[in-house]
Amino acid sequence: MRVVARTRKSTPSPDPSVELSPAERYAAARRRAEVERTELARFRELLGFPLDEFQVDACLALERGSGVLVAAPTGAGKTVVGEFAVHLALESGRKAFYTTPIKALSNQKYSDLVRRYGAEKVGLLTGDTTINGDAPVVVMTTEVLRNMLYAGSSTLQGLGFVVMDEVHYLADRFRGPVWEEVIIHLTDDVQLVSLSATVSNAEEFGDWLATVRGDTTVVVSEHRPVPLGQHVLVRGELLDLYAGHVDPTDPGVDPPINPDLSHLLRRSNREEIPARRGPAHRGRQQQGRPNRPGGGKPTPRFAVVDALEADGLLPAIVFIFSRAGCQGAVQQCLAAGVRLTTPAEASRIRMVVEEKCAAVPPEDLPVLGYWEFAEALSRGVAAHHAGMLPLFKETVEDLFSQGLVKVVFATETLALGINMPARSVVLEKLVKWDGSSHVDVTPGEYTQLTGRAGRRGIDTEGHAVVVAHPGLDPVQLAGLASKRLYPLRSSFRPTYNMAVNLVAQVGRDRAREVLETSFAQFQADRGVVGLARQAQSHTEALDGYAKAMECHQGDFAEYASLRRQITAREKDLTRAEASARRAEVARTLDGLRVGDVLEIPVGRRSGHVVVIDPGGEAGFDGPKPTVLTVDRQVRKLTVADVGTGARTVGFLRVPKGFTARVPAARRDLAAQLRTAVSDEGHAHTSPKGRVKPTRRVAATDDAEIAELRRRMRAHPCHGCPDREDHMRWAERWARLAGEHDALVARIAGRTGSIAAVFDRICDVLLRLGYLSQSDAAQSGSGDSRASLEVTAEGRWLRRIYAENDLLLAECLRRGVFDELDAPGLAAAVSTLVYRSRRDDQGEPHVPGGPASRLGVALDATVRAWSELDDLETAHKVETTQPLDTGLVEAVHRWAAGRSLDAVLRGSELSAGDFVRWCKQVIDVLDQISQAAPTDRVRETAHKAVDALRRGVVAYSSV
Questions:
Q1: pLDDT digit string (tens) for 485-510?
Q2: Are strands 316-319 and 237-240 parallel, antiparallel or unpaired?
Q3: Rounded distance between C-alpha atoms, residue 590 and residue 609, angstroms
Q4: Cα(first)–Cα(last) distance of the chain, in Å?
């Protein structure tokens, strides 16, 4: 196989108004003649618009038989290359698979291809939808194609082209590895079309594709078809980010900032400028609060909409990195009287909404907030986020693409794939919550988010607008807007399902070789070259430091070692003292009861709390009781939260059946707590939990330190007049030696790192009986680790693709689900799928109680997870995600036939989240219906799927 990666940086099509030289005209004529004789010429007749240079380059390479990687900005028209692959497949009598990362994008692309080629030639395969799966062109999610490859599906016969849309998604931590699995396992005769956002290491990714797929042409275009202007909105006034002489399409490095913008941002620190709409007091600064840098008080969201409308910048997408913020923005606009539609447009919107939502049962409409949703749409305003019902999101997308909805407040999930171009994109802030902390938006994320600004063929310029907010630095913003740093980093890692499938198909030795061809290993091996150069420079520096610390009175390295040992021992004693004190603090959280009132004297949780769950057995870092604060917050207390220790100062009766997930219950109990702590009577309660001061262990009392100091003073170098100079060089040597040792370990760890993880995963599977040693290995005639076979249990695991694949297989093997009915099985499976957005939820109610069949099954599932967690830890394998029981009651109620109102009442779960998680539970239940070892469980899984797939959960847009 020829391994070639040709990279072409495409330029925009030449301006027809510019006079070409004779040589340029001749070259252009020859190129046109060459193109006219190709299949591409016939494809162009179907399009009705001219192709850009990068599209022509990629399509010609594809027609020559090469694989292609196309990296271009959002909205540049990359999908034309994928559609040309579909055209080539149909013309040559072969099949084409068009893969996408999400179902919504698959549905959209399916509709596009059906309009062009007809429903009989196009199919759709997603986790919950199957339409014409044997068609010559099939749109699918990437996971579906991966599952086909492992199952050896007959649908793969005749496959000629695979289009991987949004291939940069392989950097996603949770689902990214699937892209690499598909790329590695596709047969050599399949041409691969990889469509990516602009990434800074496209050439590196192309080199890897050439290594694993053969001849690959890399086409990179950084040209936006619609130029993008950069602006800042300060108190209702829109200003350019850059100085007037700067070209916003090519600002260069450290471009100068617009002086008017800098002046207005500074002035806004001293005075407030009234907003355009609403009462005058909205613009006044609160007394006693100093101005903060970056624009003072943030601009109200309705005022942002006013400013965009006044400057002719609608339609717009306003990115707010919060679901609640998106919904709140819509409510603000409605309350402020925002109306962006004409009566005719509002009437058309209401008709579309009624048609789209006709399938929703009337009794569910109030629960879903339908009337508020429809009213906002009729005014041209909408939200778009993952917590919304999929039907509502699709309605918003449809109306926005028609130009009827003018402003959409969205979270960053909108930035992926869905075709919703706008004239303007607005970012409310440049900081977002990543699930664990607030982090700055990166240059790559900024490019992705603002890439939707500018509608090709409609707008002459797109507009990226950042709303001035506290902390906004225009220089930092210019750095975000002018950089194109978006490196693609592999997230590939072996999984249990991957391991058993590879061993079954190619054996363990070949499986290791396959995994070593991954992009993750490719990047790791390339990184080793740089690390090795760094290690060599370390070695040379260490030799120089050793020479500089030489002492004429003796071995100074030995003397320096004694001093380091003394320092290390002193640190050990300090840590031991801190550990003892921590243990004493932890004891104040032991033995608590539900209802105990605690006083936390100092620390980040200082104040009074009431225990609502004393927690289970104390773990490595001490007990973690769940408590309710006086301001109704549910928290898990840790040793780090309670400072010098918690004190039990009273007792409250917690109502039977108290559920922390119910806001009213939290409110009532917090009120009781406030009353109790204000009552002086609790002061007479005997306080429990005072921490006695520990006796400090003096270093002078330690025999080991005394001996080390005696040897140090007796050493010849101790009397050297240049001792401290030598010691400074010795400290430098020791620090660099530590860095060098760590670097050498990193080099060793990177070489073959993916295969090493695979080996450890195989060891876990061997221990649990999903793999076994072959007869040759057992007889001693072969390598026991190399000769592995898949057992009967392993064959079940081959058909389980859930994130917690091995835990699910263990539950099936142990018969955990055998006695459950359909609602119970659905509820139990939800614990393997669901991931709460918050970590302070109280314990949910288990239908039937702990002694019910479901309660017993959940206990058995927890035990299986705990044992698996211990085994994975022992084998140094990434541990399985812990269970989350937060969806148990809701799923059980829905599968039992309860109404949507009954399911969501008293819950903080949104309807959209509920539907999304239900579909994921259905996906796993489908796998159980194929993989379960008993007929009873397979039948129950089928019934559970039918029980869940009703009402709003059953809706599909195709």
A1: 677 888 888 899 999 999 988 888 88
A2: unpaired
A3: 15
A4: 41
